[in-house]
Structures are given as structure tokens and as C-alpha cells.
Amino acid sequence: MSRIDPNFLPETEKALAALDTRRSVPAKQLTEPGPDQRQLERMLRSAVRVPDHGKRVPFRFLSIRGDARHALGERLAARGQERDPDAGDAAVEKDRGRFSHAPLIVVVVARLGPDEKIPEQERLLTAGCVCFALLQAAQALGFGAVWLTGWPAYDPQVADWFGLGADERVAGFIHIGTPKLDVPERERPDPLALLSAWAPA
Known about the structure:
37% of the residues lie in helices and 17% in strands. By secondary structure, it is α+β, with helices and mostly antiparallel strands. The chain has a single domain, classed as 3-Layer(aba) Sandwich (NADH Oxidase). The mean pLDDT is 95.
């Protein structure tokens, strides 16, 4: 009985193509329509299927839509000026508009803190995997998305606005919407140039 090479199965190529064609869409190029609640829930069901050592579920989500995006932008503009009183108008406007383009932003929150068995880095990596899986899920449903951070991801005042606990941090802001344009492919690294074989000395 001959063994079927899975490399030639259409299902295999289709699954790999979903990975091979992933690309980030700049937040400014994302517009309505965005995912509705049903679509968001479907994306999150896929996004939570990540490696999770010890089944700690070291992540949670916040969604930002509608007028909440603009309200957050006003707060960020003011906070940015507090952080840097010499900030120019362009920097202030950039902060004001950070969350005003994509119709939906999902904040992926890493839940960390003391753990006797699972190192913090492994739990943070799990939250990072969630960010990537959410990008893939958004694209699978026909949306564009981008994973961003910037200073708001690390600012204690912003963390307070989001209600983050002392053991939580923002892993990423996932902006999701309909692309205004087709994003061109960019050059990718050659994986073979990054691969080396280890052998004991």
C-alpha cells in the first residue's frame, strides 16, 4: 500500500497558503465594515487555540469600537503631552488618531504574575501567539488586520484606563477592518539562511 505524500494534498496547500499569504494592513488603511459580534466571537474561538503550558490561559481580551475609539484618542493626545510637553502638533495628532481608523481594535492582555511552575516568559509567549492567531483568523474571514503596540502598550496610565491588574500588560493592539487597498508583498527572509544544524561538540 503506497503512502500518500501530504505535501501534494490540496488541503495541505490550502492550509499553508493561509500562512504564506498573511500580511499586515496599516491601521490607516483599515475601514468599515469591521467584524460584527458573531464574527469577532468566531475569530476569538480560533485565536485561543494556542500552545499554553500548564493550561494557565494567560490572556484576556478587550474590544474597542465606535465612539470609544475616539474617546481613547483624546485621552492619548492629552497623555502624550503629559509625557512629552515639547511634543509637536504632528505627534499629538498621531496619538489622537491611533485608534480612529480600524472599526475594531482588540486589546490582547497578557495575564502574568507569580507562578511556581510556568515561567513568565512562556506565558507572555502564549499571549503573543494569541495575537498572531487573531491576525490569521481575521484574514481568514476576509478582513485586514495589524498587530501594533507603541508607547500606549507600556504606559501605566493607559493600563489603568483599561483596568489592567498589577500582573497584566498589553501584549498587542489588533486593529481589524476592511482594507482600503491591496497591500503589496514585501521581501521575506530566506528560512534556509536562518537554519543551522546543531551537533554535540
